Amino acid sequence: MTRYIIKRLLLMIPTLLSVAVIIFFLMRIVPGDIVELRFAGESAYAQKENLDKERARLGLDKPIWTQFLTWMGGLLRLDFGTSMWTGAPIGEEIRLRFALSLQLAIMATIVAILLAIPLGVIAALRQDTWIDYAVRIMSIAGLAMPSFWLGIVFILGLLIIFKWLPPMVYTPFWVNPVQNLAQLIWPALAVGYRYSAVATRMTRSAMLEVLREDYIRTARAKGLWEKLILSRHALKNAMLPVLTVIALEFAFLIGGLVVTEQVFNLNGLGLLFVEAIGHRDYTLTQALVMLVAFVFIFVNFLVDLAYAWLDPRIRFR
Amino acid sequence: MAIGRPVEVAAEIPEVAARRRWLAVVSEFCRKRPLGAVGAAVVLINVVVGLGANVIAPYDPVATDYGAMLAPPSASHWLGTDAFGRDVLSRIIYGSRTAMLVGFACAFLGATVGAVIGVASAYFAGKVDLILQRVMDIFLAFPLIILALAVVSILGTGIGNVIIAIAIPMIPRAALVTRSSALAIREMPYVDAARAAGFRHRRIILRHMLPNVMAPYLIMLTAYLGQAILAEASLTFLGLGVSEPTPAWGLMLRGAAVQFAEAAPWMAIFPGLAISLAVFAFNLFGDSLRDALDPRLRAQ
């Protein structure tokens, strides 16, 4: 097992390296340039020498290989440099927003798990009854509703029914937990419901499959409690694919909540990404891409480990 | 021209038979999968409404009426009006045109290019397969919306660019699915036969292998329809998609809809319902189609 873990961790390096190479050169192929964008507002002053001076300050006048090696050198020391647009260290730019995005992703995941697993299990147990149909329609509807619209509807509902608006300014959890949760619970519900739709369907179909297995019949035949059969024998085995879906969605939530962040006025990673690309802020975009890719690859790795732990039939070498 | 007729008759028979078979397939689908048929019907209505928007819509979608700003739903404006006095219902009807165009174009482009890459990757195997798969893996690490955003900010806004931006992130996902089906087809005797006959790679991929991955292709295509509509609405909502004055559902939810949410909730509610209903219908239809086409599921 230890050997497998080490091997998988080492395999992450070439993948991350290729992400780094691709994003570095992709950013330079893309038309548009941060210096021209910055001076676009004051075209009268945009003399060539000013542009060149700015380029030299940002290190963009150096040959592309030098730029690449500088960046790679920084990456090895986990130093992402400074944002080309704001001039602030990238670690600082990302840290607060990452905390916000991570918290929102965790909350949405909790909402999704609380909804998906009970609903999926009930639907599977009562297959082809009205309960099953209701759950299935609810989950297809969840996939159909844009979560940003759901967010707008939540805000509207709170405003019209309770005459109350969730706080619009972000407070970190450790400063004021009540204020923090009062703001983040709504986007978490909106995103969590949508996200639960996939997990509910997965739970339902996995449960249906497992309930047909021989060992469930054996357990029933020897007169085991139905509750015990469901929790120990069926649910535990049905959780594998559900876990995968939940974990992969979680990885996507870290950077993919751009629109929901916009609706709830949250300064998360998604919006930072949009701004960074819009400004052609090479260093910041590269750092964000590396972060999102790392989270995705790492979560994949954790899923594989969990597989081995949950299913004794799977043994890795 | 005496010999003209028998040839014509002969040509007609398989065509009629094919039509009958097609009808039988459709009626069986409706009977066995009523939910899927409902979905298909709603999709059809959406397409018809989109195509005939200029006939169906009661008002011009861009005509402003400052006498009826933020008017609630009434007999003259069924779904109310927006901050410029534009009729919400008419804008939703015209928005259907944009949504259907983007939905079908993206799904077709994404699934088709993906299928070709997937089949080629399985056919060539070895190094080509390995390299293509790694590149696809890297693209898969990013949420669809983030990739689409990146492409749109590079290409610029406008409906054509939005279609490309949404279709590109769909390609790796479609490639992955078709590749796994194509791997099995690659081992079929007829592919060997085609190779032995000396056909070129392109012909074998396009004529011999691609038609045989139709089931996963159609499944991806229908699954993408709903996703494309959602992605377009999201991009447009962020101001990176379709822009004014083109009526689009995502655009109707942007800006004023949130600003006037308390005074005119219909502005925010109805376009969102239109998006949800359209995607819901596509998903219902897609799900049923998958159940009908996937032999693994059919056996159960």
Highlighted features:
heterodimer, A: 317 residues, globular, B: 300 residues, mainly alpha
Helix and strand string of chain B, N-terminal first? HHHHHHHHHHHHHH
How far apart are the termini of chain B? 56 Å
The low-confidence runs of chain A, each spanning 5 or more residues with pLDDT under 50, are none
Calculate the mean pLDDT score of chain A and round it: 83
Cα Rg of chain B: 23 Å
Chain oligomer state: heterodimer
Structure write-up:
The complex is a heterodimer of chains A (317) and B (300). Chain A has helices spanning 2-29, 34-39, 48-58, 64-76, 90-125, 130-144, 147-162, 177-211, 214-221, 226-256, 258-263, 269-279, 282-310. Chain A is an all-alpha fold. Chain B has 300 residues and is mainly alpha-helical. Chain B is built from 14 helices and no strands. In chain B, helix 1 (4-32) crosses helix 2 (34-51) and helix 6 packs across helix 7. Residues 1-10 of chain B have low confidence and may be disordered. Chains A and B meet through helix 1, helix 6, helix 7, helix 10 and helix 11 of A and helix 5, helix 6, helix 10 and helix 13 of B.
Topology, element by element:
The complex is a heterodimer of chains A (317) and B (300).
Chain A (H helix, E strand, L loop, with lengths): L1 H28 L4 H6 L8 H11 L5 H13 L13 H36 L4 H15 L2 H16 L14 H35 L2 H8 L4 H31 L1 H6 L5 H11 L2 H29 L7
Helix pairs in contact in A: 1-13, 5-6, 5-8, 5-10, 6-8, 7-8, 8-10, 9-10, 10-13, 12-13
Chain B lengths: L3 H29 L1 H18 L1 H4 L31 H37 L1 H15 L3 H12 L3 H28 L2 H8 L4 H9 L4 H24 L11 H4 L3 H4 L6 H28 L1 H5 L1
